[in-house]
## 1
Amino acid sequence: MSVDRLAELVREHRPLVVLTGAGISTDSGIPDFRSATGIWAKYDPMEYAHIDAFRRDPEKVWEFYGRRLAVLRDAEPNDGHRALAELEDRGWVRAVITQNVDRLHERAGSRALVEVHGSMRTSSCLHCGAVVPMHEVVQLLPLPHCPSCGDVLKPDVVMFGELLPAAQIARAEHLAREAGLLLVVGSSLEVYPVAGLPLETLANGGMLAIVNRGGTQFDARASIVIDGAAGETLRALAQRLE
Ligand SMILES: [Zn+2]
């Protein structure tokens, strides 16, 4: 029933803008961050994912990102990623804004993609600016050094203590303001400034739909909340919009 209602909202307010978080990728075997079994339950983000930790002890931080790279290399997009790419092809989805750095939306075929927390696709040298693709970085583990100048590379993801990429967040805010319907998938909407995007939509007369396991601070202001699996729900949505 609730997916029927979601499909109805999408028909009324197309094209929709989608905001995704870690919950869309757990079906692909990528652990989330904030749940009891998530990454931050095992790794203290201040020690493994903070820019100061990287400056202080890049080897330790790379031990963490090296493991994440290995998981990403073996992961495949799931029904949720594929359904969103299909819905974009068919004109239902204008863009996907994602907090994920796992490249699975891109690999599923999403084209209008805004990666507000960066991506594991590349690593960069903070000294000379060299950009090295993921498959080369994997060869340089455990501590990847810049092929040009020898300095330590940094994954092109936003670490704690760093600002979000300005152009990406500006694009995300613009999309959120213009959205007739913002569909949040698999994000607990706890991390700002991304958690502020629903406010941009609501303030400009748009509606909010949420598909997430567990509650969010915006549930009361959403037109529909589905407490369910991302892949199953998005697949069902794509079928209803055929
Ligand atoms: Zn360099």
## 2
Amino acid sequence: MIFANLEKLPPDPILGVTAAFRADPSPDKIDLGVGVYRDDHGNTPVPAGVREAERALLAEQRTKTYVGPAGNAEFNERIVELALGPVAREVRDRTATIQTVGGCGALRLGAELIRASRPDAVVHVSDPTWANHEPLLGSSGLALQRYPYYDPATRGVAFDRMRDHLATLPSGSVVLLHACCHNPTGVDLDPDQWRALTDVFAERGLVPFVDLAYQGFSDDLESDVYGLRLLATRVPQLLLAVSCSKNFGLYRERTGALAVVAGNAAAAAAIATHEARTARRMYSMPPDHGAAIAARVLANPELRALWESELQGMVARMKSLRALLADRLATRRPDLDFSWVTRQRGMFSLIGLDSAAIGELRGRHHVYVPPDGRMNVAGVSESNVDRVADSIVAVLG
Ligand SMILES: Cc1ncc(COP(=O)(O)O)c(C=O)c1O
């Protein structure tokens, strides 16, 4: 039996919560675990601008022949422009971009490239980080280490410790940064901190690997990439993993890109050949549909304006849910400070409960969060916020 050595694995920490939620027959169950945006009705909509683009694409498309390992060239160009803005033009000749299988594909492909060039490189990830970062990057064979990031006492960034730690790393160390909406903490760097951090990267010769999975989900498409653009102007090389899952609502279309900004044009040309070969050896080519849709949205001013206004609506909703939840928690426990709920950004916050309390939330209150306590604020709604607040307060002790 060729597979006799494969034993059953424990459930994935995040996907396992979804499975447990589905299996719970309680009509009152609430899912704060899953990492997708939800509207007032609990649905994850396809933005109208994206649907329009898809309709037009289907009406016009006459072939589904192969595109090639680098995927949709127009998408690659436009998605880098969306992320880097005016800086994209400055670094254009030394940027090698490949369309990937979602943001996960970009992270993994980036790790494979680093390993092919420098097998002994260490990738430093924030403590904590998204539960899938370490498996995705580590499976390439690269060594991983953690740097200080979150301070549970202040529920903010442990910035001094982060900066001092990064300032001790050897030149050439790769550091994975979340561009915005840090997953799982919701805690981001402010512009002053980005400037100070960029100095450290430039002075120490560190290589940023920026994960951009939530552009437009914190405040807006421009301010969310302040730090990324600053880094791209100040450091000679950078890796950027983009996901279109959340902001375009293209989750299952698996749409993303890896852009590598290299020291010079010749290096970028060489990197492009390695990107294509790595993709060819793993999965050959990325799926086209989502990338063709996103390219169309970005290229068409009307569709783009429609999409941007819908994105603004999603952000406004997440901010108002945060305000609502903070208010309901504070009403129940005026002795505690819940201002962190509104200070944090994007969909996630760490709820700050131990595993017994998280088990009790699930077992007694039918409120589902993953074992690390990452709460998806988009799972809260006007109709369930009181139950969410009651349940959290009940397990706080
Ligand atoms: C921090 C972070 N990076 C990357 C991704 C990748 O997303 P996808 O592969 O679905 O595009 C996600 C998705 O949840 C994420 O939260």
